[in-house]
Fold:
Amino acid sequence: MKPCLKLSLFVNELPTWTDPSAHCTRRRNVYVPMQKIFLDENSPADAIQKEEYRSQGKPDCLIGRKDPFYFRNQVKPHAKAFLKFWVDGAVHFYKAGRLDIPAFLHEHQRKELSDKSVDVEAYVDEHLVVKPGAKLLQRDIIDDFRKVTQIEELSFRTKDLAAALQKAFAERGPEFQQVQRYNGRDGSMRKDANGKDIGKGMLYANLTFKDATKAPWNAQTVTTHDLYAADLRPCEW
Structure:
């Protein structure tokens, strides 16, 4: 007999069965859990889970940052297209008895295997600008890069992305020589849902987004005191 199956996808929550051990349930349902986990960096419980994952030898690419608005911003707007993809695939399979790899997946694979430094250089040229007195957290740059390029942690680790940004800035010419990187504050006094200060970290002075609407703060003036009083310990990649 030709095998047939029904595939159900669940996000965050799994369905509950009246009797999970019943044969009628076990023979019809197979759970395929994803190895990648998404954690809140500010949650103590998630921090413990993160360390447990690392102690098991799991690579960092399987540890992602939790985005509580991911479904609302990244999934829901594409719900119709997602459903159409599955329905069209099923219709094609019933007609042809096989599934061909769509051309766009070949393009996706090409992008995954491409040199990511080219994407970083293009992003810097198109989305960042030197502005004396401005401050931009490296975390905000990386988050915006991922939104713009759709290149996720699994394809391009944050550690490698940060290094590629450094290299791109160094190669941009004399204007970017005034961009300075150090541990400090962006002056925004931003806080997360738990009240934790997220306006500090590794940042770039004299740099901002070309699109001013992306910046959740007003540009702050960088003083000599800021630069030399900041934590200037080298960042270990």
Q: What stands out?
A: Residues 114-229 form one domain. The mean pLDDT is 79. The CA atoms of residues 142 and 161 lie 8 Å apart. Residues 79-96 form the longest helix (18 residues).
